[in-house]
């Protein structure tokens, strides 16, 4: 069997590892998160929708979920839905495109409906503004905020010296953390993979041209990587 350079995933794995005989995945979350206390005023309201847009939001909202009066749950994508389903909660709405733009295009925002939206302090405000414009009552509460992971940044420095095959970026905040401590030059010859167009745009602004998998799933990422590894193996002399 050929041995290839390691591939860094700049987030912590939340799902069972996807196995491949062609690569070694190393999870280095450049960003970790710290929770805020939830405003207890939410316990006094009744919500038509509980809107959760990330696995982190699910994790940090779990201590409160049964204390809040909500009727339906909406998510922004499969990973968030899976985090809820694993905990025994049924998801009523999930867009086919796992982005804020996909959510806005497909979710039927009804005037007068009340939504609870616990979210990262750094989340883009697109959905929030869209729902307000549609006449919804939106209680947006900052549930957590991202902070840099010093250990992962140190480990990334060590691995970059070993000539990585690829680095997978899953969020603009991960790109910003990388950009703060490393140069684009340090990714010369390294395949940069972006999950989502916002992450891709952040990388391009940093001077790095990323590639994107067909879907924002680990299986799709693995398929992309395996095709690139096969191509490189067949073209090396």
UniProtKB/TrEMBL annotation:
Single GO MF descriptor: uroporphyrinogen-III synthase activity
UniProt-listed Enzyme Commission number(s): 4.2.1.75
UniProt keyword Isomerase present: no
Record pathway: Porphyrin-containing compound metabolism; protoporphyrin-IX biosynthesis; coproporphyrinogen-III from 5-aminolevulinate: step 3/4
Gene3D superfamilies, per database record: 3.40.50.10090
Catalytic reaction annotation: hydroxymethylbilane = uroporphyrinogen III + H2O
InterPro entries membership: 4pyrrol_syn_uPrphyn_synt_sf, 4pyrrol_synth_uPrphyn_synth, UROS/Hem4
Entry keyword set: Lyase, Porphyrin biosynthesis
CDD domains: HemD
Pfam families: HEM4 (PF02602)
Domain named Tetrapyrrole biosynthesis uroporphyrinogen III synthase: residues: 24-222
Role, per record: Catalyzes cyclization of the linear tetrapyrrole, hydroxymethylbilane, to the macrocyclic uroporphyrinogen III.
Family designation: Belongs to the uroporphyrinogen-III synthase family.
Protein name as annotated: Uroporphyrinogen-III synthase
Organism of provenance: Salinicoccus siamensis
């Amino acid at each position: 069997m050929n041995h290839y350079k390691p591939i860094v995933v700049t987030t912590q794995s939340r799902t069972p590892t996807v196995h491949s005989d062609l690569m070694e995945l190393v999870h280095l979350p450049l960003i970790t998160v710290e929770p805020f206390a939830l405003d207890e005023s939410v316990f006094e309201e009744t919500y038509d929708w509980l809107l959760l847009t990330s696995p982190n939001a699910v994790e940090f909202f779990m201590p409160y979920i049964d204390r809040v009066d909500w009727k339906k749950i909406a998510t922004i994508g499969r990973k968030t839905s899976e985090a809820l389903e694993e905990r025994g909660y049924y998801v009523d709405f999930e867009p086919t495109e796992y982005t804020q733009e996909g959510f806005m295009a497909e979710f039927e925002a009804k005037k007068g409906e009340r939504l609870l939206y616990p979210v990262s302090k750094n989340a883009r405000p697109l959905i929030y503004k869209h729902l307000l414009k549609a006449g919804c009552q939106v209680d947006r509460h900052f549930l957590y905020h991202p902070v840099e992971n010093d250990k992962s940044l140190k480990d990334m420095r060590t691995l970059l010296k070993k000539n990585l095959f690829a680095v997978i970026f899953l969020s603009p905040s991960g790109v910003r953390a990388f950009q703060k401590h490393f140069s684009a030059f340090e990714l010369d010859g390294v395949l940069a993979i972006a999950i989502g167009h916002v992450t891709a745009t952040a990388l391009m602004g940093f001077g790095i041209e990323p590639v994107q998998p067909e879907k924002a799933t680990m299986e799709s990422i693995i398929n992309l990587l395996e095709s690139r590894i096969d191509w490189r193996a067949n073209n090396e002399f």
